[in-house]
Design a protein that fits this description.
Blueprint (H helix, E strand, L loop, with lengths): L27 H32 L6 H27 L6 H21 L8 H25 L5 H7 L3 H26 L16 H40 L1
Main location: endoplasmic reticulum
EC number: 4.2.1.134
Enzyme class: lyase
Amino acid sequence: MAASGSGGSRADNGYGSQQPRRRKGPGALATAYLVIYNVVMTAGWLVIAVGLVRAYLAKGSYHSLYYSIEKPLKFFQTGALLEEYLLIAKYLLGIVPSSVVLTAFQVMSRVFLTWAVTHSVKEVQTEDSVLLFVVAWTITEIIRYSFYTFSLLNHLPYLIKWARYTLFIVLYPMGVSGELLTIYAALPFVRQSGLYSISLPNKYNFSFDYYTFLILVMISYIPIFPQLYFHMLHQRRKVLSHTEEHKKSE
Protein backbone atom coordinates (compact mmCIF):
# COMPACT_ATOMS: atom_id res chain seq x y z
CA MET A 1 0.00 0.00 0.00
CA ALA A 2 1.21 3.47 -0.74
CA ALA A 3 0.69 6.60 1.24
CA SER A 4 -2.56 8.09 0.18
CA GLY A 5 -1.85 11.61 1.19
CA SER A 6 -4.05 14.65 0.84
CA GLY A 7 -4.33 18.23 -0.29
CA GLY A 8 -3.97 17.73 -4.01
CA SER A 9 -1.48 15.00 -3.45
CA ARG A 10 -2.94 12.70 -6.06
CA ALA A 11 -0.73 12.85 -9.09
CA ASP A 12 -2.28 14.75 -12.00
CA ASN A 13 -4.44 12.22 -13.71
CA GLY A 14 -6.16 12.70 -16.98
CA TYR A 15 -8.73 15.44 -16.51
CA GLY A 16 -6.39 18.09 -15.13
CA SER A 17 -3.11 16.65 -16.40
CA GLN A 18 -0.65 19.18 -17.74
CA GLN A 19 1.33 16.77 -19.94
CA PRO A 20 -0.89 14.10 -21.51
CA ARG A 21 0.68 11.70 -23.93
CA ARG A 22 -1.87 12.59 -26.55
CA ARG A 23 -3.50 15.92 -27.20
CA LYS A 24 -6.75 14.32 -28.22
CA GLY A 25 -9.35 14.95 -25.55
CA PRO A 26 -12.43 12.94 -24.65
CA GLY A 27 -15.45 13.03 -26.92
CA ALA A 28 -18.62 14.92 -26.11
CA LEU A 29 -20.30 11.92 -24.48
CA ALA A 30 -17.25 11.06 -22.40
CA THR A 31 -16.86 14.71 -21.38
CA ALA A 32 -20.50 14.89 -20.28
CA TYR A 33 -20.07 11.72 -18.22
CA LEU A 34 -16.88 13.01 -16.59
CA VAL A 35 -18.46 16.37 -15.79
CA ILE A 36 -21.44 14.66 -14.15
CA TYR A 37 -19.16 12.30 -12.24
CA ASN A 38 -16.98 15.12 -10.92
CA VAL A 39 -19.96 17.31 -10.02
CA VAL A 40 -21.50 14.44 -8.05
CA MET A 41 -18.22 13.74 -6.26
CA THR A 42 -17.76 17.44 -5.45
CA ALA A 43 -21.29 17.56 -4.03
CA GLY A 44 -20.67 14.38 -2.05
CA TRP A 45 -17.58 15.72 -0.35
CA LEU A 46 -19.39 19.00 0.32
CA VAL A 47 -22.06 16.93 2.11
CA ILE A 48 -19.31 15.42 4.25
CA ALA A 49 -17.89 18.87 5.00
CA VAL A 50 -21.31 20.22 6.00
CA GLY A 51 -21.91 17.12 8.12
CA LEU A 52 -18.68 17.69 10.01
CA VAL A 53 -19.48 21.35 10.67
CA ARG A 54 -23.05 20.61 11.78
CA ALA A 55 -21.92 17.83 14.10
CA TYR A 56 -19.25 20.06 15.60
CA LEU A 57 -21.73 22.89 16.21
CA ALA A 58 -24.25 20.48 17.75
CA LYS A 59 -21.75 18.75 20.02
CA GLY A 60 -19.48 21.68 20.75
CA SER A 61 -16.54 19.29 20.44
CA TYR A 62 -14.41 17.87 17.64
CA HIS A 63 -14.12 14.47 19.30
CA SER A 64 -15.84 11.47 17.68
CA LEU A 65 -17.19 13.41 14.69
CA TYR A 66 -16.50 10.38 12.50
CA TYR A 67 -19.91 8.88 13.25
CA SER A 68 -21.69 11.90 11.79
CA ILE A 69 -20.17 11.38 8.34
CA GLU A 70 -19.37 7.66 8.35
CA LYS A 71 -21.84 6.56 5.65
CA PRO A 72 -21.19 9.32 3.07
CA LEU A 73 -17.44 9.00 3.66
CA LYS A 74 -17.52 5.29 2.88
CA PHE A 75 -19.72 5.82 -0.16
CA PHE A 76 -17.81 8.64 -1.82
CA GLN A 77 -14.35 7.41 -0.95
CA THR A 78 -15.21 4.01 -2.39
CA GLY A 79 -16.71 5.78 -5.40
CA ALA A 80 -13.21 6.96 -6.29
CA LEU A 81 -12.47 3.39 -7.41
CA LEU A 82 -14.62 4.01 -10.49
CA GLU A 83 -12.46 6.99 -11.33
CA GLU A 84 -9.28 4.95 -10.97
CA TYR A 85 -10.68 2.17 -13.17
CA LEU A 86 -11.23 4.72 -15.94
CA LEU A 87 -7.82 6.27 -15.43
CA ILE A 88 -5.99 2.96 -15.55
CA ALA A 89 -7.86 2.12 -18.76
CA LYS A 90 -6.75 5.47 -20.20
CA TYR A 91 -3.19 4.80 -19.05
CA LEU A 92 -3.13 1.46 -20.87
CA LEU A 93 -4.30 3.30 -24.00
CA GLY A 94 -1.54 5.88 -23.55
CA ILE A 95 -3.86 8.83 -22.93
CA VAL A 96 -2.60 9.88 -19.49
CA PRO A 97 0.92 10.08 -17.95
CA SER A 98 2.54 7.31 -15.91
CA SER A 99 1.84 9.25 -12.71
CA VAL A 100 -1.62 7.71 -12.80
CA VAL A 101 0.00 4.54 -11.40
CA LEU A 102 0.89 6.47 -8.25
CA THR A 103 -2.64 7.83 -8.19
CA ALA A 104 -4.06 4.30 -8.25
CA PHE A 105 -1.92 3.39 -5.25
CA GLN A 106 -3.16 6.46 -3.41
CA VAL A 107 -6.82 5.69 -3.98
CA MET A 108 -6.42 2.05 -3.02
CA SER A 109 -4.66 3.03 0.21
CA ARG A 110 -7.48 5.43 1.09
CA VAL A 111 -10.12 2.79 0.45
CA PHE A 112 -8.02 0.36 2.48
CA LEU A 113 -7.84 2.79 5.39
CA THR A 114 -11.58 3.47 5.19
CA TRP A 115 -12.70 -0.16 5.21
CA ALA A 116 -9.87 -2.42 6.40
CA VAL A 117 -8.78 -0.18 9.26
CA THR A 118 -11.34 2.40 10.38
CA HIS A 119 -14.43 0.33 9.61
CA SER A 120 -12.97 -3.01 10.73
CA VAL A 121 -11.30 -1.82 13.92
CA LYS A 122 -14.15 0.06 15.57
CA GLU A 123 -12.03 1.00 18.57
CA VAL A 124 -10.10 3.55 16.47
CA GLN A 125 -13.19 5.40 15.27
CA THR A 126 -13.07 7.71 18.29
CA GLU A 127 -9.41 8.59 17.72
CA ASP A 128 -8.68 12.22 16.88
CA SER A 129 -6.34 10.99 14.16
CA VAL A 130 -9.39 9.83 12.17
CA LEU A 131 -10.75 13.38 12.12
CA LEU A 132 -7.30 14.56 11.03
CA PHE A 133 -7.28 12.56 7.82
CA VAL A 134 -11.03 12.99 7.20
CA VAL A 135 -10.71 16.79 7.24
CA ALA A 136 -7.63 16.64 5.00
CA TRP A 137 -9.36 14.29 2.56
CA THR A 138 -12.54 16.38 2.51
CA ILE A 139 -10.86 19.69 1.69
CA THR A 140 -8.63 17.96 -0.84
CA GLU A 141 -11.46 16.27 -2.70
CA ILE A 142 -13.70 19.32 -2.85
CA ILE A 143 -10.85 21.23 -4.48
CA ARG A 144 -9.72 18.35 -6.69
CA TYR A 145 -13.12 17.46 -8.16
CA SER A 146 -13.95 21.15 -8.63
CA PHE A 147 -10.65 21.50 -10.47
CA TYR A 148 -11.50 18.61 -12.78
CA THR A 149 -15.03 19.89 -13.41
CA PHE A 150 -13.97 23.40 -14.42
CA SER A 151 -11.03 22.02 -16.44
CA LEU A 152 -13.39 19.85 -18.46
CA LEU A 153 -15.60 22.88 -19.07
CA ASN A 154 -12.55 24.97 -20.05
CA HIS A 155 -13.41 27.59 -17.42
CA LEU A 156 -10.92 27.02 -14.62
CA PRO A 157 -10.82 29.89 -12.07
CA TYR A 158 -7.32 30.79 -10.96
CA LEU A 159 -8.33 30.49 -7.29
CA ILE A 160 -9.22 26.81 -7.71
CA LYS A 161 -6.02 26.14 -9.64
CA TRP A 162 -3.99 27.93 -6.95
CA ALA A 163 -5.73 25.96 -4.17
CA ARG A 164 -5.20 22.68 -6.05
CA TYR A 165 -1.45 23.28 -6.25
CA THR A 166 -0.89 25.05 -2.93
CA LEU A 167 -3.03 23.70 -0.08
CA PHE A 168 -1.52 20.23 -0.45
CA ILE A 169 1.63 21.64 1.18
CA VAL A 170 -0.21 21.53 4.51
CA LEU A 171 -3.03 19.07 3.84
CA TYR A 172 -0.87 16.26 2.53
CA PRO A 173 1.32 15.89 5.67
CA MET A 174 -1.82 16.39 7.76
CA GLY A 175 -3.63 13.55 6.01
CA VAL A 176 -0.66 11.18 6.07
CA SER A 177 -0.11 11.86 9.77
CA GLY A 178 -3.74 11.04 10.53
CA GLU A 179 -3.56 7.84 8.48
CA LEU A 180 -0.38 6.60 10.13
CA LEU A 181 -1.60 7.44 13.64
CA THR A 182 -4.88 5.62 12.97
CA ILE A 183 -3.13 2.48 11.72
CA TYR A 184 -0.79 2.62 14.72
CA ALA A 185 -3.77 2.93 17.08
CA ALA A 186 -5.36 -0.12 15.44
CA LEU A 187 -2.35 -2.40 15.94
CA PRO A 188 -3.03 -3.53 19.55
CA PHE A 189 -6.66 -4.39 18.74
CA VAL A 190 -5.65 -6.28 15.60
CA ARG A 191 -3.06 -8.30 17.50
CA GLN A 192 -5.49 -9.08 20.33
CA SER A 193 -8.38 -10.13 18.06
CA GLY A 194 -6.39 -11.78 15.30
CA LEU A 195 -8.41 -9.78 12.78
CA TYR A 196 -8.08 -11.05 9.19
CA SER A 197 -5.17 -13.31 10.21
CA ILE A 198 -4.87 -16.91 9.03
CA SER A 199 -2.95 -19.39 11.17
CA LEU A 200 -1.34 -22.70 10.33
CA PRO A 201 -2.15 -25.51 10.06
CA ASN A 202 -4.87 -25.28 7.43
CA LYS A 203 -5.71 -27.15 4.23
CA TYR A 204 -4.19 -24.42 2.09
CA ASN A 205 -0.88 -24.48 3.98
CA PHE A 206 -0.96 -20.70 4.04
CA SER A 207 -0.67 -18.18 6.84
CA PHE A 208 -1.25 -14.44 7.00
CA ASP A 209 -0.62 -12.04 9.87
CA TYR A 210 -2.68 -8.88 9.46
CA TYR A 211 -0.78 -7.20 12.31
CA THR A 212 2.50 -7.58 10.43
CA PHE A 213 0.82 -6.50 7.21
CA LEU A 214 -0.30 -3.22 8.80
CA ILE A 215 3.24 -2.56 9.96
CA LEU A 216 4.45 -3.10 6.39
CA VAL A 217 1.78 -0.69 5.18
CA MET A 218 3.11 1.95 7.56
CA ILE A 219 6.68 1.34 6.37
CA SER A 220 5.55 1.72 2.74
CA TYR A 221 4.75 5.38 3.46
CA ILE A 222 8.49 6.06 3.86
CA PRO A 223 9.48 5.64 0.17
CA ILE A 224 6.14 6.67 -1.38
CA PHE A 225 5.29 9.84 0.54
CA PRO A 226 8.37 11.84 -0.60
CA GLN A 227 7.81 10.82 -4.23
CA LEU A 228 4.22 12.06 -4.22
CA TYR A 229 4.98 15.20 -2.25
CA PHE A 230 7.90 16.30 -4.42
CA HIS A 231 5.93 15.42 -7.54
CA MET A 232 3.24 17.88 -6.47
CA LEU A 233 5.84 20.54 -5.61
CA HIS A 234 7.25 20.12 -9.10
CA GLN A 235 3.76 20.38 -10.60
CA ARG A 236 3.07 23.48 -8.52
CA ARG A 237 6.15 25.28 -9.82
CA LYS A 238 5.40 24.29 -13.40
CA VAL A 239 1.68 25.07 -13.43
CA LEU A 240 1.62 28.28 -11.39
CA SER A 241 4.74 29.73 -13.00
CA HIS A 242 3.21 29.00 -16.43
CA THR A 243 0.04 30.81 -15.33
CA GLU A 244 2.01 33.86 -14.16
CA GLU A 245 3.96 34.00 -17.44
CA HIS A 246 0.69 33.76 -19.38
CA LYS A 247 -0.78 36.67 -17.39
CA LYS A 248 2.30 38.84 -18.04
CA SER A 249 2.14 38.14 -21.77
CA GLU A 250 -1.46 39.32 -22.03
